[in-house]
Amino acid sequence: MVLLIKDEYPDKLFREDGKRLDGRDKKELRPIKMEVGVLKNADGSAYIEWGNNKIFAAVYGPREVHPHHLAKPDRGVLRVFYRMATYSVFDRKRPAPGRREKEISMIISDCLEPVLFLELYPGTSFEVFIEVIDADGGTRCASTTVAALALADAGVPMRSLVTSLALGIIDGELVVDLSGIEDKAGDADLPIAITWFNDEISLLQFDGKMDLSQFDEFLTLSKEFAKEIYEMQVATLKEKYLGIQENIEKENKNREDDSK
Amino acid sequence: MMDVKRVISKIERKYIKNNLKKEQRIDGRGLWDYRDFKITPGLIASAEGSADVLLGETRIITGLKYDVGTPFPDLPDEGVCTLMAELLPLASPLFEGGPPNNQSIELARVVDRGIRHADCVQTKKLCIKEKEAVYILFVDMYVINHSGNLIDCGGVSALTSLINAHIPEGRWTENGVEWTGKYLTGEDIVKELPLVMTYGKIDDIVFADPSLPEELVSDGRISISVTETQITSIQKSGGTTFSFDEIQMLAKKSMEIGKQLRKDLDLLQYKTKI
Amino acid sequence: MNEEEEDVSSEEDEFEVEETSRELVVPGEILTDDTKNFIPGRGTLLTKDKSKIVSLMLGLKSIKKNYINVIPLKGIYTPQPGDKVIALVVDKNPVKYKCDINSKDFAQLKPRNTIKRERSRMGRGRGGPQDDTERFDIGDLIIAKILSADRLNKPELTTVGRYLGKKNGGIVISIDPPKIPRVIGRAGSMIKMLKNLTKCNIFVTQNGRIWIRGENIENERLLIKAIAKIEREAHTTGLTDRIQAFIENEKVKGGIN
């Protein structure tokens, strides 16, 4: 694509005042907003806004496997389809899924599988469709996080939720939650996901250069911030129902007050 | 509430038909009433124009991207605007994903023709340097939820994303095309406001804005695009026939409904303010 | 077939049972670490180290005697023998009908399980055995009973029995299967109230599908609205009274009888 505004990488990823380019501290998450049950035709669904990322996830299943030859006789199959809309990136993406999307689909699938009970669903499939409509760094992590919500919304039995985020190294410093520009211009990118039933790691990738002490710090920080995001996932799932309960209580109170 | 599967149950068909004969619809609408539109413009930070449009529960999020390229040899001073549609599996178990199928192609083409023949997009304004450089606009519609009548929802979504445009303005220099620092907006690009109206037909009853169950039991369908003064595109689909009287009536109805909708929606309010 | 006679009073509404707390739990949430006094029930799991009982899904925590259960709020239908379901015939061949029952598998209906009671009393000899059966087409909605369902085989249906067979009119709507007990209510209180106030025939089945037929479309619309409200508020208390108030209010607003 010939673009008139060039996608330029700045020299420095920290401002004069020590903050990151978007005003955050080194150990600060971007604003995150989550919602479940947004797509009524799917068995389960969720939506997330994470910084400028905007991602939908929908779950169908358990249901019959299409095409049949992919069915397994002894367990269910999990299929994840991670896709990006053409307009979700600065340089328009071609509509057909590319290698990167297929790789990420596989990574997310491997990440979610440990929490599912696929052995209880022989011959059937769970399909997770993820659509990124606006991307700004860490889409695979946000996608994993929103996919876990969609699975829970569908009522699929799970050992626990899964939470994912990306840490990174920019200008030699370890930071939490890389934005798009930090991802592109930074020194290292570390997406990680944690499954809470066993407090273990189910997604881990790394690209860049890092020394061992940074790695230790990275592991500690990732768990701490993943926990924070996990609390948001739990609140989102409960909020859908608690909100309704609160409204009813409010209505009841209003009616009581009116009749006084 | 109504379970949508590939096979439509006989009693569903009967229920919808019998009630339509009495001019009654499940959601309480009249035969010519549209469901509510809800529009959110400019939500996609990465796009140069966008619109999230709900028609009832049908939802289409459209994004606008641009490229700069050489014009077609027979139209050396005109830019190009192309539309595409994706029916996401997220939106319905009826959508399988994969390469464009008949339904997604039809959606893109019907909306495209309504916009094109209305001379909606000022393609001459999309010219940077005759014969050398023009804008190519990509209007990509993504169906996020299917609850019937993708075409009318898509039409408003595509049009609004064009109105919402904020494309970097280019200038031709000896080094190629450079950014002037300013932007082309919907005000520069959009001249007309075509709206497409789709009608379903079951037996001999015709009705506007089919919901999903109505669409699935319809024998046929017709979409008519109109501007304030003219008809700009028609597409009939499905294996049923329409009488001459019906077509005349629908053309007239479309102008009326179109005028009212255009007024109610007031789409120009979704321009990007620079 | 007189749907109104069907006795649903024995069906239990888990949501209204006293032991159900209003506590919402998510997958993996710890329900108790007192594994000596509590037993993991429906929707729960004992952890590998046997130290905790955790929830398997999003639902309401419920303690019955010393069983801890989680009542799910959503989820596709799991066929149980004896359940009544509304099945949609999606395919057929001479040996069976293939039916959609809103579950992970399609169900099978074999002709021998479609024998009409009245006809079968006439005995053999009147044409072949096929003459006794009720025949179905693709697109038919039928009320059937689950004969058998297990992990390895597709569920089997039967239409032999009272209230079972094809539906010719009315309309079928769907809600989340776990919420069906709420539409029935404690000792059938909710469904009785719905029938009386909306003057509709209602047949509720376990796979989340509800058949309704009213005197006119306004009554049917009102009933559909009420059921949608039940589905949305299934996890709350005082539901029957609230739904009743809602219907009465709507009737006044809409001038419905």
Key traits:
heterotrimer, A: 260 residues, alpha+beta, Ribosomal Protein S5, domain 2, five-stranded mixed beta sheet, four-stranded antiparallel beta sheet, 9 strands, 32% helix, 27% strand, globular, B: 274 residues, six-stranded mixed beta sheet, 6 helices, 27% helix
Describe the structure.
The complex is a heterotrimer of chains A (260), B (274) and C (257). Helices cover 32% and strands 27% of the residues of chain A. Chain A has 260 residues and is of the alpha+beta class. Chain A has one domain (32-259): GHMP Kinase, N-terminal domain (Ribosomal Protein S5, domain 2, 2-Layer Sandwich), CATH 3.30.230.70. Chain B starts with 9 loop residues before the first helix and ends in a 9-residue tail after the last helix. Chain B has one domain: 2-Layer Sandwich (Ribosomal Protein S5, domain 2), CATH 3.30.230. In chain B, 27% of the residues lie in helices and 33% in strands. In chain B, the strands form 3 sheets. In chain B, strands 1, 2, 3, 4, 5 and 6 form a 6-stranded mixed beta sheet that branches. In chain C, helix 3 (189-198) packs parallel to helix 5 and helix 4 packs antiparallel against helix 5 (239-254). Classes of the chains: A alpha+beta (260), B alpha+beta (274), C alpha+beta (257). Chains in contact: A-B, A-C, B-C. Chains A and B meet through strand 3 and strand 5 of A and strand 3, strand 6, strand 7 and strand 8 of B.
Helix content of chain B: 25-40%
Mean pLDDT of chain A: 94
Order of strands across the biggest sheet of chain A? 1-2-3-5-4
Give the radius of gyration of chain B.
20 Å
**Structural category of chain B:** alpha+beta
Q: Classify the beta-strand content of chain B into a percent band.
A: 25-35%
Number of strands of chain B: 12
List the topology elements:
The complex is a heterotrimer of chains A (260), B (274) and C (257).
Chain A: E1 32-36, E2 44-50, E3 53-64, E4 77-84, H1 99-112, E5 124-134, H2 139-153, E6 162-170, E7 173-176, H3 180-185, E8 188-195, E9 200-204, H4 212-259
Parallel strand pairs in A: 4-5
Antiparallel strand pairs in A: 1-2, 2-3, 3-5, 6-7, 6-8, 8-9
Helix pairs in contact in A: 1-2
Chain B: H1 10-21, E1 37-41, E2 50-55, E3 58-69, E4 80-87, H2 102-116, E5 127-129, E6 133-145, H3 150-163, E7 166-173, E8 176-185, H4 186-189, E9 195-202, E10 205-208, H5 212-217, E11 220-226, E12 231-237, H6 244-265
Parallel strand pairs in B: 4-6
Antiparallel strand pairs in B: 1-2, 2-3, 3-6, 5-6, 7-8, 9-10, 9-11, 11-12
Helix pairs in contact in B: 2-3
Chain C: E1 20-25, E2 30-32, E3 39-40, E4 44-46, E5 53-55, E6 59-64, E7 67-72, E8 84-93, E9 96-100, E10 107-109, H1 117-120, E11 141-148, E12 156-158, E13 165-166, E14 171-174, H2 180-184, H3 189-198, E15 201-204, E16 209-213, H4 217-232, H5 239-254
Parallel strand pairs in C: 3-7, 10-12
Antiparallel strand pairs in C: 1-6, 2-5, 4-5, 6-7, 8-9, 8-11, 9-10, 11-12, 11-13, 14-16, 15-16
